[in-house]
UniProtKB/TrEMBL annotation:
<dbReference type="InterPro" id="IPR001915">
    <property type="entry name" value="Peptidase_M48"/>
</dbReference>
<dbReference type="Pfam" id="PF01435">
    <property type="entry name" value="Peptidase_M48"/>
</dbReference>
<keyword id="KW-0479">Metal-binding</keyword>
<keyword id="KW-0482">Metalloprotease</keyword>
<feature type="signal peptide">
    <location>
        <begin position="1"/>
        <end position="19"/>
    </location>
</feature>
<keyword id="KW-0574">Periplasm</keyword>
<dbReference type="GO" id="GO:0016020">
    <property type="term" value="C:membrane"/>
</dbReference>
<keyword id="KW-0645">Protease</keyword>
<dbReference type="InterPro" id="IPR011990">
    <property type="entry name" value="TPR-like_helical_dom_sf"/>
</dbReference>
<dbReference type="InterPro" id="IPR051156">
    <property type="entry name" value="Mito/Outer_Membr_Metalloprot"/>
</dbReference>
<keyword id="KW-0378">Hydrolase</keyword>
<feature type="domain" description="Peptidase M48">
    <location>
        <begin position="68"/>
        <end position="249"/>
    </location>
</feature>
<keyword id="KW-0732">Signal</keyword>
<keyword id="KW-0862">Zinc</keyword>
<dbReference type="InterPro" id="IPR030873">
    <property type="entry name" value="Protease_BepA"/>
</dbReference>
<dbReference type="GO" id="GO:0046872">
    <property type="term" value="F:metal ion binding"/>
</dbReference>
<dbReference type="Pfam" id="PF14559">
    <property type="entry name" value="TPR_19"/>
</dbReference>
Length: 474
């Protein structure tokens, strides 16, 4: 993955390039880093991930994982702490926790889990690592071992969790490989994450038997194809004893059979529609529907329409969408897909009407929010776009993409102060305070805002400089 190469290269330059700007990590006698320090290290890594382009930008996939993750985290012992869930475009089976409650999931894990409870079990396991402060403990232990740069250490954690092959590669192998070996989760860490994760899974209403079942499947497949263990097994080593211990715990809990959510099925279908060539994806769904190889027909028809749009076969996509809508008359993913199809057909007026209707039913659904704003921009309705985005920013205040779109609207209107201000807020929500400060400085210098707008920007610039830790500009 691109960001793995970037971070490995950063390891070699760590003493020169990465130490500046990191928080003072306090007293070495602490056994666990303070949460705010841990979070700042995590944000430093997340900024690199976002810049790498490897994070899945599809808002429907991201929101599904976020909703599943928050459902689980709300039943953890630290349900008031800040968690952030994201998806990495990678076909390998893996998930990983970063400092500060950031949890990443590979698309390969979503595709290979056979039930939503299996996917939830892996997320619950990672949440277990977070609430037991395993990453924080390892960071603290390495700090006492006088690793020269905490940023480099945090980078090596990401490499080790996200791409173990690269962490062990020849690039700065003596440094990165040594750190990775020291940062592998211990057996005790894994048992703790299993125990805590299983309780979270149970309290969240999922099938707890999914955890040992999924782990057993991974081990079985590894024996069948020797030498190609899934990434998850390399970073979270499994043993038959561990699985037996999980199974024993499951047997003490009440049996619960839990059906998959429709969203789980549709997100998996959407990811499958993006695999291979467009023609291959269409053939895949055609075969499934023809041979009735599915547990949910609507999700397969949804995937077929997505694949047809990817193939630019809008005529057939329109026909298949009608069949999908007969199965699911009102669902936010279907409404978004229908409006996107109309835009692809060049029917902007009908598409805008469909987006508006969908937003009437699902006002906070980001797929519809993004689609409507982008459609307004593409049809030159700049005032409407800027006003709509201002309204939605109050409902979704942490969404950086809304500010990015709003910046586009303002810039095209010649409103430079507002354009730079909105772009600065977008950078801030992507953990890039340096770029946010630069944009606010440009907004201050733009000279086209009124007194009220200028005052707001100056106050925000001062606040951002304080967060950046620039004593000369407070």
């Amino acid at each position: 993955m691109k960001f793995s190469y970037l971070l490995l290269a950063a390891l070699a330059l760590a003493p020169l390039a990465l130490a500046d700007g990191l928080p003072d990590l306090g007293d070495y006698s602490q056994t666990v880093l303070p949460p705010q320090e841990e979070r700042r290290i995590g944000e430093e890594i997340m900024r690199e991930i976002r810049a790498s382009g490897e994070m899945v930008s599809d808002v429907e996939v991201a929101d599904y994982i976020g909703a599943l993750g928050y459902r689980l985290a709300s039943n953890s012992s630290e349900n008031t702490r800040s968690f952030s869930f994201f998806v990495i475009q990678d076909p390998t089976i893996n998930a990983f926790a970063l400092p500060g409650g950031f949890i990443g999931v590979h698309t390969g894990l979503i595709a290979q889990t056979r039930s939503e409870s299996e996917l939830a079990s892996v997320l619950a396991h990672e949440i277990g690592h977070v609430v037991q402060h395993h990453m924080s403990r390892m960071l603290e232990a390495q700090k006492r071992a006088t690793i020269p740069s905490m940023a480099a250490l945090a980078a090596s954690i990401l490499v080790a969790r996200a791409n173990p092959q690269l962490a062990q590669a020849g690039i700065v192998a003596s440094q990165a490989g040594g750190i990775q070996r020291q940062l592998d989760y211990t057996r005790e860490h894994e048992r703790e994450a299993d125990r805590v994760g299983l309780q979270i899974l149970n309290d969240s209403g999922f099938d707890t038997s999914a955890m040992p079942t999924f782990f057993e499947t991974l081990m079985k497949n590894t024996r069948i194809s020797e030498g190609s263990a899934p990434s998850f097994l390399r970073t979270h080593p499994l043993t038959t004893e561990r699985i037996a211990e999980i199974r024993n715990r499951v047997e003490q809990l009440p049996y619960r059979q839990v059906p998959d959510s429709l969203e789980f099925q549709m997100v998996r279908a959407k990811l499958s529609a993006g695999v291979g060539t467009p023609s291959d994806a269409v053939r895949y769904f055609d075969s499934n529907l023809r041979e009735k190889k599915f547990s949910n027909e609507a999700s397969q028809r949804y995937g077929l329409v997505v694949a047809l749009l990817r193939k630019q076969d809008t005529l057939r996509a329109e026909h298949e969408f009608a069949a999908l809508q007969a199965l699911l008359p009102r669902h936010p993913m279907v409404e978004t897909l229908g409006a996107n199809l109309l835009m692809a057909e060049g029917k902007a007026k009908e598409a805008l009407a469909r987006y508006r209707n969908g937003l009437g039913w699902f006002p906070k659904y980001r797929g519809l929010v993004y689609g409507y704003a982008e459609a307004l921009l593409s049809t030159g309705q700049l005032d409407q776009a800027a006003n709509f985005l201002s309204e939605k920013e109050s409902l979704l205040p942490e969404d950086g993409y809304l500010y990015e779109l709003q910046s586009q609207a303002y810039v095209r209107q010649g409103k430079n102060l507002l354009g730079h201000q909105a772009q600065g807020e977008a950078y801030f929500r992507n953990f890039d305070i340096g770029s946010a400060v630069e944009q606010m400085e440009l907004a201050v210098k733009s000279g086209d805002g009124d007194f009220y707008q200028q005052s707001i920007v100056e106050a925000r610039l001062k606040e951002l400089r304080q967060l950046q830790g620039d004593p000369k500009k407070k």
